[in-house]
Amino acid sequence: MDDVVVFLFIHGGAYCFSTSEYGSPHNFELIKSFNERQRQAGHSKRMVAFSVEYPLAPKAQFPAQVYSAADAYRWLVMKLGVKNIIVGGDSAGAHCTIKLMNHIAESDELRGLGVWPLANMLFSPWVDAADYWDPDQDAHDVISTLGIRFADRMVFGHTKHGRNDVLMIQPDDFSVASKGTLVMYGSSEILAHGIERYVGLLNQRTEPVPGLQVVCFEGMPHCFNLMLAEEFLPGARAKALEALNITVEFMTSVCA
Question: What is the pTM of this model?
Answer without folding.
Answer: 0.95
